[in-house]
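Hi Y.,

Following your request, here is the sequence exactly as I used it, all 211 residues.
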Amino acid sequence: MSHIVLLVDDEPNVLHGLSRALRRESYEILTAGSAEEAGGILEENLIDLIISDEEMPGMSGTEFLARVAGEYPDIVRIVLTGHPTLPTALRAINEGKVHQFLTKPCNEIDLAITVRRALEQKDLQEKSRALLEVTKKQSALIEEARMLRRLRNHPPRDTSAPIAGGVQPAADRTLVEQIEDEIQRGSEVLEPGWFTTEYTETTEIRDNDGG
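Below is the corresponding structure, written out as tokens. Let me know if you'd prefer a different format.
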């Protein structure tokens, strides 16, 4: 699956370095020099992951990612800063709901691994949601089939002539086909090995002073 990664930083050299670190991956890389420019890119592209600098003029990375979290909650968010402090990290995690907090200069290998694992987690979550929807549809169709079977076995007294033996009603055949289709969809979602990916969730962090 191809992913689109958006890099946001007001320093062109940093953007070049981040792009170089991910050059061996099969991602489409987009760049923006400000939060405002990044907002325009978000409106026109289905972004999977954002890496945003924290210290930017106009709007900080945390403020930008907090807006992204509200408008595009499925996008993975990573913040990058050259001046790491505990208050900055807590604000990024609690307000920006970031997946990870990285510091400059960022090791290229560490960055590539972080992005790869974050996107694997995103894919896992999407497959889980898709499988849940298939399971719900299967359950509804199976319950409908049971109701039709009960009606066939216990028809109303004023019903018309019974169905000839050995002939399945067209409605039942259609229902069976729908169930088989949903089972096939579930099998396609449940690819071999998909459940082995490590799954973690970012939780709100508070310092010892309760801030």
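The first strand starts at residue 3 and ends at 8.

Thanks again,
Q.
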